[in-house]
Amino acid sequence: MLYQVPEPKIFTCTQSAGLAERIAESFGTSLGKINFSRYSDGEFQPSFEESIRGMRVFLIGSTNPSSENLMEMLLMLDAAKRASARHITAVMPYFGWARQDRKDKPRVPIAAKLVAKMLEAAGATRIITMDLHADQIQGFFEKPVDHLFASTLFLPYLKSLELPNLTIASPDMGGSKRAYAYSKHLNCDVVVCYKQRAVANTISHMELIGQVEGKNVVLVDDMVDTAGTLTKAADLMMERGALSVRAISTHPLLSGEAYERIENSQLTELIVTDSIPLKRESKKIRVISCADLFADVMQRVHHNTSISSKFLM
């Protein structure tokens, strides 16, 4: 008698519930039942309310701060491991703490490596994520990592705009590789911003490498936090004669005065994914869902088929 592989089960962390519901719907199933009980001091305990013994489970949750989001994922992984799940995949649309991927000064942690080790120790047998802050973070894991690119979502949208004299821009030197990858698919020029920071999230100086006069510019980045870099770059490019400036940023952290900066800037629009739920709506922010992308990859992982078609960059 042949063993029939059971259908996988999908569960969600609390902060990614909206995205997880869209992923489950696209996958063709519903979310599994999980309960979070909480103590008065803030401690919480996840509990799977259905059997997952011998099954493949997908646990969906971005791990952007606060640290509760990461802790939820770790506890859910541990609970799934102790409930005898066969395969436990951490689906992390946004991999938090990734900006600390190296020692850039003495006596600091490499938080991205620490998080990777904690996820594996908790029970993750596979990681699915999107647009890591640095590609080499995949090397921090000993388990398989499926690193997806939001370019599969953004490129069709950019092409639909049919912008003349299109130019792709990187808001900093570190993102130039990403910008060149977009320009290759769109067959257009690239410009790069050179910035200097006095302290984290504060830009002291910015210069533009390249010409933007008479161009429709699209800034490309992996995340937008305080929006200081994007808005300053947009204003600088408009001063240099750009016709319009849009920005693409996969992960909308949008902390501090980010919303106000975006709404008061010369950005035509900011295009993001729903890897992190928006704190509030804005007329300048367009959200493109990544639910279908993750659902498709999860199906392919479950059926052991290739996902290479999802790697445009």
UniProtKB/TrEMBL annotation:
Top-level EC class as recorded in UniProt: transferase
Enzyme Commission code: 2.7.6.1
SUPFAM superfamilies named among the record's database cross-references: PRTase-like
Record SMART domains: Pribosyltran_N
Keyword tags: ATP-binding, Cytoplasm, Kinase, Magnesium, Metal-binding, Nucleotide biosynthesis, Nucleotide-binding, Transferase
A Pfam family: Pribosyl_synth
Residue ranges annotated for the Ribose-phosphate pyrophosphokinase N-terminal domain, each copy included: 9-123
Domain of life: Bacteria
Catalytic reaction list: D-ribose 5-phosphate + ATP = 5-phospho-alpha-D-ribose 1-diphosphate + AMP + H(+)
CDD domains: PRTases_typeI
GO cellular component entries: cytoplasm; ribose phosphate diphosphokinase complex
NCBIfam families to which the protein is assigned, alphabetical: PRK01259.1, ribP_PPkin
Name of the protein: ribose-phosphate diphosphokinase
Organism of provenance: Arenibacter nanhaiticus
